[in-house]
UniProtKB/TrEMBL annotation:
Gene3D superfamilies associated with the record: B-lactam Antibiotic, Isopenicillin N Synthase, Chain
Record GO terms (molecular function): metal ion binding; oxidoreductase activity
Fe2OG dioxygenase domain span: 192-291
Identification of the protein by name: Polyubiquitin 10-like
Superkingdom of the source species: Eukaryota
Family recorded in the similarity comment: Belongs to the iron/ascorbate-dependent oxidoreductase family.
Amino acid sequence: MANEPPFFEKYKAIFQRSADEKEKSIIVDAIEELELPLIDLGHLNLGPLERQECIEKMARAATEWGFFQIVNHGIPEELLTRLKQEQIKVFQLPFEKKSEDKFLNLSVQGYRWGNPLATSLRNLSCSEVLHISLNDISKMDEYNKLRPFFLARSTIEEYAEKANVLAQTLAEHLAESLGIKASYFRENCSPTSSSLRLNRYPPCPYSSMMFGIIPHTDTDFLTIVSQDQVGGLQLNRDGRWVSVKPNPETLVVNIGDFYQALSNGTYKSITHRVIANQECERYSAAYFYCPTYETVIESCSKPSLYRKFSFKEYREQIQKDLKATGDKVGLSRFLL
């Protein structure tokens, strides 16, 4: 189809090499499918006891799982539906339009697919993403005036605003158990320092040999994910892969590297991946709650597991490691 990225043409040598070497499945099946801890944020407004129980449940999930799911989160279902519609609309565009320079007038990241650094099917992701820095949203209007396609800026902006409020609220409640001052996130995370990533995972005939997204951890403080019913998200829990039972009625929240470092290892940034589906396409949208580039991350307790580092320094180290090894490496680079 004209809208599909040319995975097999672009990575023909990798697929051919895999066939020649009779490469077998690289996906170790998850042992079981689990439901993430469910947090009802409505309990935060019921009374002091219910509020405290809700915060403790959230902190326990962040400590033991690194992931949880939430209901009564304040983001209307109607808005999530509109966001999904915008997502479908953008990914159904012809590939040549999606892949043009400065698509939607976004900055360096913008539209991406596959993995230009891939050397084998093991590090090739069968997915396409549109990464939107919130600082770039205003640039969309200039792009859309010159082209018939129009990605509704109003929907993206409305969702980003509500997701930012939700992320800040969650981060502040999780901070209570650590003794971190309530204003920490308001002081270090601006409304435009975060980003939104729209994901599409096309049907993949090589689903036993490549990932939808390769195993990784998120860099940010928190990620908020809206996903459909298809499933595919898996976590590495206690050294084994487990599948997350999809629930499109909830939002999924996971701890990122920065919160693990800030919490001095109390909260866990868990390695996760998405398994490609042979028959069905899958959609998800991830909001990454990030600090400004100048923000210095420092463990909240002593002795510190990690040395101090800035977002900028962390990002630069990731790029170096990706070029050198093909792997993010991440927090282990900053252990004391």
